[in-house]
From TrEMBL:
<feature type="domain" description="N-acetyltransferase">
    <location>
        <begin position="18"/>
        <end position="159"/>
    </location>
</feature>
<dbReference type="GO" id="GO:0016747">
    <property type="term" value="F:acyltransferase activity, transferring groups other than amino-acyl groups"/>
</dbReference>
<dbReference type="InterPro" id="IPR016181">
    <property type="entry name" value="Acyl_CoA_acyltransferase"/>
</dbReference>
<dbReference type="Pfam" id="PF13302">
    <property type="entry name" value="Acetyltransf_3"/>
</dbReference>
<dbReference type="InterPro" id="IPR000182">
    <property type="entry name" value="GNAT_dom"/>
</dbReference>
<protein>
    <submittedName>
        <fullName>Acyl-CoA N-acyltransferase</fullName>
    </submittedName>
</protein>
<dbReference type="InterPro" id="IPR051531">
    <property type="entry name" value="N-acetyltransferase"/>
</dbReference>
Length: 192
């Protein structure tokens, strides 16, 4: 997560690491995580300052990359280098971890409904498909009331696997989607 030259290009976006040393990255993430749209579906945030975000990036986010080889990424408009969203593959720590990472995303409200989130997700999945030499397994876990998230997963070709209790998120009921070809046995293979 420390390579400042790492990037995944897509037609309109550049996906990079979030850098805890960058005030721009910290301020951007604070704006996303405190937006009413993010809070509505993800719950309240404890982040209140740039320093709170810096500690999150340097701590938990960096540890996730070190443990799994993937984590949270920034996506920016290529033409202007403007940060507009995040895309992530998160798997958590034992014992609260699923057998495949959760593909997640967040975007500034001003850039919603323009296809940027789908493009970032598709770009990240293609990168990891290439890296593993096949289909990289990923789940989509989200609040069932979040119609926009469901639309993104549907557009990416994910399959609806129903509503399940998400123990990793404190037992809340959540929509579960999976990439095609993943096992139907969510409880056995993916430890639901």
């Amino acid at each position: 997560m420390t390579d400042p030259n790492f990037s995944i290009p897509t037609p309109r976006l550049t996906i990079t690491y979030l850098q805890p040393t960058s005030d721009t990255h910290c301020d951007f993430l604070l704006a996303v995580y405190t937006s009413p749209e993010f809070i509505r579906f993800s719950g309240r945030t404890t982040l209140q300052t740039r320093e709170d975000v810096r500690q999150l990036l340097a701590g938990r986010f960096r540890a996730e990359h070190a443990r799994n080889g993937y984590g949270s990424y920034l996506f920016s408009l290529t033409k202007t280098n403007t940060p507009i969203g995040t895309v992530s593959l998160m798997q958590g720590e034992e014992p609260n971890r699923y057998g495949a990472p959760d593909l997640g995303f967040a975007i500034l409200p001003a850039y919603m409904r323009r296809g940027y989130t789908k493009e970032a997700c598709a770009g990240l999945l293609a990168y990891f498909d290439d890296k593993v030499g096949g289909r990289f397994e990923a789940l989509g876990l989200f609040n069932p009331e979040n119609v926009a998230s469901g639309a993104v997963f549907r557009s990416l070709g994910f399959e609806d696997r129903g509503i399940h209790e998400l123990r990793v998120f404190g037992g809340v009921k959540g929509a579960v989607w999976a990439r095609p070809g993943m096992s139907e046995d969510l409880k056995g293979v993916y430890q639901f």
